[in-house]
Amino acid sequence: MVEKPSMRAVPVVDLRQSERIPATISIGLVVESEAFKVEHQASTIDFSVRGAKVQTPFALLPGETVEIITMGDSRHAISARVVWAHRVGTDLWSLSGLAFLDTLPA
User: Fold this and answer.
1) Contact, 85 vs 95, CB < 8 A?
2) CA 20 to 30 Å from 57, out of 9, 14, 25, 39?
3) How confident is the prediction along the chain (106 residues), in pLDDT tens digits per residue?
């Protein structure tokens, strides 16, 4: 007789390498194509020293490289790679996970 696997609850384990900090911050995202660069408005949902979750009014594609532009008196550009992306509901809004290609400035 074959024994059925147990249906016990498995604890959820967060496998992230660094702690996420919830923060809604207005940013610009520069998306580059072969012909041109376009800066779009976006906002963070959370971030860590390794990446960020962002909300955008346009679709990003996994594997795509973008520049995150910080707003304010001194604008900084941070290169990132889109790790995952999906649409939110039936709207055009999209959530994406970005991995920083460089470490964050201190």
Assistant:
1) yes
2) 14
3) 555 555 555 554 455 567 889 999 999 999 987 788 888 899 999 999 999 999 999 889 999 999 999 887 778 889 999 999 998 876 778 999 999 998 655 5
List of residues 6+ apart from 12 with CB closer than 8 A: none
**From CA 22, how far away is CA 20, in angstroms rounded?**
6
Predicted TM-score of the model (pTM): 0.77
- Domains of the chain by range and CATH? 21-100 (2.40.10.220)
Q: Is 10 exposed, middle or buried (0-12, 13-18, 19+ CB in 10 A)?
A: exposed
